Structures
1.
Amino acid sequence: MAAKKAEQTLVDQWRDILALHARTQCELDRALHRHGLCASDFEVLDVLADVRRATGGDCSYRVQEISERVHLSQSALSRLIARLEKDGLVERGMCSEDRRGVRVVLTPKGRTLHGEVLPVQRAVLTKMLDAD
């Protein structure tokens, strides 16, 4: 009986995590939509901005590296990056260390938009995830 109760507690915790994720994702999409972005768009911009902040330059990530950080499939990420590129927010280029690879970098327009919406995204995260 105790094992069944522990198992149900585990399942309930998992479902609570999923529900919190879904609510937060919806709130992010709603807030970012006013700026022409969805939560996944912002995550890609934020990952690219993180690498730039960490290195102090216009560094880029390989698509595969972005995929590992934003938890999207390769194909979904490729479509998202194509859309961001069409909007002038990122640029794609060949990977110098592996000709089959593609690197992605923020454009000046992408950096500006990221800077404008960063406080919006962080405010939503604070609102949704602050346990106080």
2.
Amino acid sequence: MDKLLEFGRKAMFYVRVLSGYEERRIRSYRLQLQNRLEQAQVRKAALKKIPEQVILSEVRRMVDEMQALNKKLEETEAAIEDYFKPIDKEAQIIMKMQLEGEEKTMREMMNAMQKQALLEKAEADKIANISSVDTNQQKPDKAPTTNHAEVR
């Protein structure tokens, strides 16, 4: 019985081969395999692109975050500048007042120093005149000589 079944199977195989059924089946199987390979290659290429796309999207996201942070920073700096503008103006006014006060005291000191120098010069001239008069009285024979006093 087994031999009969084996013979029947072989006979059916020969019939399928001779009729071309087995060849069509093999071709269709080969085409299925080829389609699967192509689809696998497409998926593989897509998977290779995914990390690049992920990296690019991450970079874009980071750039967007950095731009947002820069914008917030600029807005904060502008707000700080606006906040300190009145204080800066007051500080400038105070500095001008201090400079004007210092200039005024400097002018007063210069005037006082000039007056002091004039007083010292006048006193030195008086002393020089007195000493020359004294020397003229002690030595009437000689002609009067003028002494030059140092001026500070």
3.
Amino acid sequence: MVNIVLPVDFGDKTEQLVEGAVKFAKQINGKIFLIHVAPSDIGFAIGDMGFQYFPEVEENEIREELVQLNKIQQRILAHDVDCEHILKQGIAKDIILEHAQDKNADFIVMGSHGRSGMYDVFVGSLTKGITKDSKIPVLVLPIHE
């Protein structure tokens, strides 16, 4: 079985990215390792009193993101593609590359924005960082309007 790491951000193009990854996984008998990386500072806010931490905000956000991950996982499984998911907090690029290595990934599947001819905008800064630093092949799927 071929291991595929699929980072998702729950943006408006996530569904297209998941569809492309499922199609790819079916073609190569792949297993998808779905990952979402939440920022470390979800519960922090700045106001009159300076920085404040609200753990309930972070807990609610993480809980909602886990619900979204579960839904995506169920959609993938419904296509007869094996899938696991995980949510981690930290710096997205570092966490994704570490997760790919931990899962012995054969591929990382990312999406491009398709909005402009400029590389950073076209591919996206996270996708650019992953493709630049990954020792694992990165499949970049065009995600268009």
4.
Amino acid sequence: MSAVTSVNLAVVRTGEWTGRIGKSGIDKRPAGGPVRFTDTGVAGDSVCDTKHHGAWYQAAYAFDAEELAFWSAGLGAELVPGNAGENLTLSGADSTSALIGERWAIGGAVLRVTGPRQPCRVFAGFWDLPGLVKRFTAHGRTGVYLAVEQPGEISAGDEIRVLSRPDHGVEVAELFALTMRGRSDLAEHVAGCLPDLPEKWRAAAAAKIESARVTT
């Protein structure tokens, strides 16, 4: 069964690694009870870099407990729920294999998968791991950003129920492979998910697809 291991909220941190903003909400800790998810974000969470985070299509971020275990083994340090900056730590979900536009019911909320997370220097600084952006990109298991279609409360232990999956069959991992890893062979397949992408990400993906078409 796919389920929520933990619901996590930000503890705002400062430090040189936070970049030009000077503070970050990437450090998230397990909440003590149910948390309300709305179309504008997660109640009680903090978004500091509003240029790159906090849009409606980034209302929440989910990451797999299995991926935390993978990185823990590679880093030689235990990563716990919230350490990837995720609001939802999931188990048994394989979230990066979800389809763009896939809809989930969790607790009292309905969430829609909008796209992959793109690693950044703040993430690398938080983990204190130079080269993390390159390693994370190469690994390609990014977790997913989520829009909230139906606001509601989510708690640790809630089951994840897939309500619908688009016919295009484009996985989050495949979109990331094209846009961030240069997998131009995926261009025509990924083109099928363009209508399900937020406008900003649709334009970026369309440019990658067009570039691939020109060079093949």
